[in-house]
Amino acid sequence: MPYNMLIVDDSATTRRMIGKTLRLAGVDIADIHEAADGRQALELLREHWVDLILTDINMPVMNGVELVETMYRDGLMQTIPVVIVSTEGSVTRIDQLKAKGVAAYLRKPFTPEEIRNVVEEILGVSHEN
Amino acid sequence: MRTDAREVVEAVFSDVLGRLGFMFAEPAEQDYAPAPANDYLLARVAFQGPFSGALLLAAPSDLCLELSSNMLGMEPAPENSAIHGDALKELLNVTCGNVLVALAGEEPVFDLSPPEVAELSRDDWEALVRHTASSLLVVEDEPILLHLYREGEATS
To answer: pTM, whole model, 2 decimals?
Structure first.
């Protein structure tokens, strides 16, 4: 079953790269929505259902942590799994985010296999070669 | 910048450039004198944590065009300078995050500012190249410059 994804990052290049990597990795995708910051992401989530969110932390207007905290105060949005895709590598930060309910953390740069494994584990699918 | 920190920056950048941009960086020879480019871009990201500062990355616009092409796997329009700058910012952003882990370990938390990019004049490029704390590398026969600034550290 194809999945709808939301990619949140202030870099248009990064959003395209993540989308391209997801497709290269063979993830079954219906639609990929994009947002440049947390606020845009929330507006989009009010209009479209997504199965998974991949978000950066470090963004203007509303960062990834603020996005996650806002989502988890919403009864419906809190059910959407969130993967943090970030350049920051602090184990302390990762533990803090997971304590807030983030499903997984993917550190840049990542390979297609790494993102596929994370996405498939969260969505509960297996990759068929 | 201490020599060991500079080596870390160069090594991390080379690794990230290879994995994101499929390009290779080499240290510039002492007598390396590239022809002046028409224009340059300078990206900057600031960080705060156990130590604070900023990491700069500067390159000719033509190299940024090639970088964005490689990262996107397509040919961006040459006049789309926003994409070129965006690619440089992302390269810098990923480099900085990994540099901080390499320098400080995986425990400390750093807050990074959203990276910024601006045009750089030839004179300002030359000044950065001459700065003793800058690292000059060669990528696809073009120069690329890195400069790590740490607050409270002597740069000469």
So the answer is: 0.88
